[in-house]
Automatic annotation (TrEMBL):
<protein>
    <submittedName>
        <fullName>ABC transporter substrate-binding protein</fullName>
    </submittedName>
</protein>
<feature type="signal peptide">
    <location>
        <begin position="1"/>
        <end position="24"/>
    </location>
</feature>
<keyword id="KW-0732">Signal</keyword>
<feature type="region of interest" description="Disordered">
    <location>
        <begin position="30"/>
        <end position="55"/>
    </location>
</feature>
<dbReference type="InterPro" id="IPR050490">
    <property type="entry name" value="Bact_solute-bd_prot1"/>
</dbReference>
<feature type="compositionally biased region" description="Polar residues">
    <location>
        <begin position="42"/>
        <end position="52"/>
    </location>
</feature>
<dbReference type="InterPro" id="IPR006059">
    <property type="entry name" value="SBP"/>
</dbReference>
<dbReference type="Pfam" id="PF01547">
    <property type="entry name" value="SBP_bac_1"/>
</dbReference>
Amino acid sequence: MKNNLRVVGALTIIAIMMIMTACSGNGGKGTGGNANNDNRGQETPISASPSPNVEKKNSEITLTVQFPKSDNVVEIPVYEDKMKRFGEKYPHVKMVKNDWWYKSDEIGIKMAAHQAPSGFYVPATEGGTLVGHEWAADLTPFLKNYEFANDFNEKLTTQFTVDGKLYAVPKNAYISSIIINKKLFEEKNVPIPSLDWTWDEFYEAAKATADPAKGIAGFAIMAKGNEGGWNWTNFLYQAGGAAQEVQDDKVVSTFNSEAGVKAMEFMKKLRWEGNAMPQNWALNYGDVYNLFKQGRAAIVLGESGQIEDAVNNGGMDKNDLMILPMPSMEKGGAHVGVLGGNYMIVNPQESMEVQQAAFDFITFDMFKDSEIDVLKTVLEDRKAKGQIKAYGSAAYYYKADSEFGKKFEALLDKYPDNVYKLDPKVIEAMVGIPEPAYNGQEFYGTITNVMQEVFTNEKADVKALLDEAAKNFDNEVLSKVTIQK
């Protein structure tokens, strides 16, 4: 692959989950939503100055800040505080709020209308699309004067690196893994799986823990929206497959390979032979985890964030929950999960002065003691409420051996009763492969359509369905992809 964004690469992650201080959304997809951007948001009374290396030091500029929607009561104070502190340091940049959050079917319209924020969150799946359409600014000019430029975790920058140039700042990441309800295993006298489990063992565990008469599923997978394809891609990767590849400067689908057929046939087996899935299998992100919190699913895909939700919001006992690496297709194989996350890009339509201010705002708390202070506040709050904060199955945006990384770990160690950490052996076993870089969300939706047909029709021809889906996806979507040269 030449002069283009790298699509996949196996990355063994041996870190734990970073604090997500400024993003909301499910499955790395962002919060979505539509905003009325006719006036590009509500002007705030806060102003700030650009970074010292911007030419127009004394000129007032306007920075459009991506801001949480009005019903996001948790994140609004976080953003308000950040804007206040940013304004105190840089008093010559006027900030306005814009509550539009990325959606793959809206980004083209927003960019054409010049209504996107000066900097905004995007999911890992959008790297190829954004760079190819020149909707993400090259960060090289800003990184030259950024003291922490060499401290970013290079395992996370792959998705947005083209010809050695970085086009997005990584914020948080995850590797999909397995969460089990040990209580349901024990009730059915089913052995707890080992770390080195396989598809066969996964199937037997899901089949044995299912109790359809009681409305208990052995395995609940998302199969309603794009999340379905997102979940399934884990099994595609475990079978050694890939969603897409670049051939002669064109992106083409490869999910209808032998590996893709194996992965979809495995889903079919779980559904029809094992009767392991919920009778109502058309579940979205929230549905699956609500089912799990209700004690009606023994196995789900997820990561440590769902452990936190299950304990703090579902009333579950953390001792009944366990995270395992993904199963390998065969004994001795890799325990592969989707590596995804959220990134921040700078809007290239803005002037260089505004772009610099946007970069400064995006990175304002990164690698700083101020972010450690935010984490301490969160941990103190959880301690007071008797709740936990979970960290694991993910990669930090920074290098673990950096000065900041050491401070972060040291603080976590001070709250042993309120921090849920993954077993280091589980983390060691995990292998992450990045999400598809080109039109990933549309790919996920395409796969969900195939899953729904397979879950509806016991006699569905998996190979034929995948071939037809790949043909249509190539013609309707990937044929329009622009490869950055």
